[in-house]
């Protein structure tokens, strides 16, 4: 384990815990931005530069802003201290159980000890060529999905004309 | 270089933090943030397994992660639009208080 990895991983996990446990929703959103940025750092460490920058563009740039907007739009009448569930321990126990299961699987598997081969030659050009040849059908489906999601989001969030409240 | 298990542990931790958040928080936006965290954990797994695979030049993990990011973006947009509509209707974003299918 190298020092940069330890720092980025600690930052990512720490800010993820903060994003899920802080009371103030705006603070949660800001911690979430830190988590996304840390994940982008991890991608860069793994030689996946393009995915790292996509992560920053899409998550830090778009999704985080969208979440902040949603928080600000739905906050006005919300009571200040959102009470947690009556029994938060069940959810936390489920999560801890899931983590222990996954950790045991990782520890038991021989794949986990694998050390990376020398950095692969992956340029954005080859990635684009792959996307336009082998993966052109998923790419087109994705374009359709994004268009449908955009239209759907606009139509769902549109104020209805009847003005029923 | 960190072995694969390091990245897998970070990913598992992120997934479980997101799971705990989605199960315990009552605000719909926080539930959505938890789901986003879980999706990101899966993405980290894709990238890590791609980097440590026998032949990374096929770039399967990279393209899969890219598509996954696009789907997550679409999901966030529609999810937040739904939350805003629910808030407008019920005047709350608390998932426990939204119990009626008919307003």
Give a verbal description of the structure:
The complex is a heterodimer of chains A (165) and B (103). Chain A has six helices and no strands. Chain A is mainly alpha-helical. In chain A, helix 1 runs antiparallel to helix 2 and helix 2 runs antiparallel to helix 3. Chain B has 103 residues and is mostly helical. Chain B has three helices and no strands. The model of chain B has no long low-confidence stretch (mean pLDDT 89). Helices cover 74% and strands 0% of the residues of chain B. The termini of chain B are far apart. The longest helix of chain B has 31 residues. Chain B has one domain: Helix Hairpins (Orthogonal Bundle), CATH 1.10.287. Chain B is elongated, with a radius of gyration of 17 Å. In chain B, helix 1 packs antiparallel against helix 2 and helix 2 packs antiparallel against helix 3. Chains A and B meet through helix 1, helix 2, helix 3, helix 4 and helix 5 of A and helix 1, helix 2 and helix 3 of B.
Unreliable spans of chain A are none
For the report, how would you describe the main beta sheet of chain B? none
Number of self-contained structural domains of chain B: 1
Largest interface: A-B, 86 and 72 residues
Cα(first) to Cα(last) distance of chain A is: 57 Å
The CATH topology of the largest domain in chain A corresponds to Four Helix Bundle (Hemerythrin (Met), subunit A)
What class, by secondary structure content of chain A?
mainly alpha
Output the CATH homologous superfamily of the largest domain in chain A.
Answer: NADH-ubiquinone/plastoquinone oxidoreductase chain 6, subunit NuoJ
């Amino acid at each position: 384990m190298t020092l940069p990895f330890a720092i980025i991983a600690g930052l990512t996990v720490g800010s993820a815990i903060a994003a899920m446990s802080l009371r103030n929703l705006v603070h949660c959103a800001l911690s979430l931005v830190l988590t996304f940025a840390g994940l982008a750092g991890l991608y860069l460490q793994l030689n996946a530069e393009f995915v790292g920058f996509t992560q920053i563009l899409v998550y830090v740039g778009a999704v985080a802003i969208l979440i902040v907007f949603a928080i600000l739009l739905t906050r006005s009448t919300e009571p200040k201290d959102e009470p947690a569930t009556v029994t938060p321990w069940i959810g936390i126990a489920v999560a801890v159980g899931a983590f222990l299961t996954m950790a045991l699987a990782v520890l038991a598997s021989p794949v986990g000890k694998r050390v990376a081969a020398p950095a692969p030659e992956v340029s954005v050009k080859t990635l684009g060529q792959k996307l336009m040849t082998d993966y052109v059908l998923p790419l087109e489906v994705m374009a359709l999905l994004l268009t449908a999601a955009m239209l759907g989001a606009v139509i769902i969030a549109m104020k209805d004309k009847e003005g029923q409240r | 270089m960190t072995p694969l298990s390091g990245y897998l542990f970070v990913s598992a931790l992120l997934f479980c933090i997101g799971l705990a958040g989605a199960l315990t928080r009552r605000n719909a936006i926080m539930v959505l943030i938890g789901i986003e965290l879980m999706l990101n954990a899966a993405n980290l797994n894709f990238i890590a397994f791609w980097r440590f695979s026998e032949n990374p030049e096929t770039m399967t993990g990279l393209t899969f992660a890219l598509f996954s990011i696009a789907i997550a973006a679409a999901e966030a947009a529609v999810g937040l639009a739904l939350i805003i509509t629910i808030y407008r209707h019920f005047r709350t974003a608390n998932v426990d208080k939204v119990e009626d299918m008919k307003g």
